[in-house]
Amino acid sequence: MGLGVNVEEKKVLVTGGAGFIGYHLCKKLSTITDNLTIYDDLSSGKIENVNDVLSAKFVQGDILDLKALFGLPRQDLIYHLAAQVVVPYSMENPLIDFETNAKGTLCVLEKARKDDAKVVFASSAAVYGNPTVFPTPESYGFHPFSCYGLSKVVGEQYCHMYREQYGLDIVITRFANVYGLRCHGVIHDFLDKLAKNPDKLEIIGTGKQARDFVHVSDLVEALLTVGASDQFNAETYNLGFGKTTSILELADLMLGILGLTNRTVVTTTNQSWQGDVTKIWFDISKAKKALNWTPKVSLEDSIREVIADRKIRL
């Protein structure tokens, strides 16, 4: 699998490039092209992520600011990652979630229409809601269970509209649970809790809720592939590991790696947050076949990497 269509000659814009996934994508893109622009309002992204991508141009701005977006140089390829991604927040603040994820995506699509740029849109497993088919294929359809999931559905629908009505080249990528260095999420949450008290680990919910964990380096590889070649335009791809792991299984794995299996008492709250889904397990056969892509990093190896990076001693 190669990067194909002269990405090094393209002007590339990454919205949300100062975030976790954005950082890893931009770090890789910066080795391919000298024409990389990171656009982020730093509401959740971090300036240190930007500073670590030395060859990129950084513009601090909001995706809702059309004047600022249109003020950017013409782009050939836009990776639209900027979003409000916290499900509980979306349930408490549905208007803000809609503004950022739905209207924000529309603003980015307007920038793409102005520039005649290709768009790779970052969608989510949340569009499936609580699926009844496992592993879940792209054809399952929209059944959002949270305001966040619904706002991503609206973003996808706008992508389809702009492709059909304006002829834009657009690829939709649905992310499972992405993890790795510089990430925030359940793995880092568990490590934070254990660092404070290695004798007890409390899990929010029943612990039976399950997720499809995909390492950020595997995700970035797929994003680069769909961005590089026109053959993937107008397609939607699930990007996960193709395996489901319960949160209790994740806790057991982490405790084993940390040597805490016989020490830490695991408890559950038995009540999760509003909008939480029960199980995510992607069918990734379409992406594997079409992109010649297979996720390689195991959950265990990555947890060891994160623990080593954080220099955790318990």
Structure commentary:
Helix content is 39%, strand content 17%. By secondary structure, it is of the alpha/beta class. Helix 1 crosses helix 8 and helix 5 (94-115) runs parallel beside helix 6. Mean pLDDT is 95; it is low at 1-5. A 7-stranded parallel sheet has the order 3-2-1-4-5-6-11, sandwiched between helices. It is globular, with a radius of gyration of 19 Å. It is built from 11 helices and 13 strands. The protein has helices at residues 20-29, 47-51, 66-71, 87-92, 94-115, 147-166, 186-196, 216-228, 247-258, 285-291, 299-310; strands at residues 12-15, 36-40, 57-60, 77-80, 118-124, 170-175, 177-179, 200-203, 210-211, 213-215, 236-239, 245-246, 265-268.
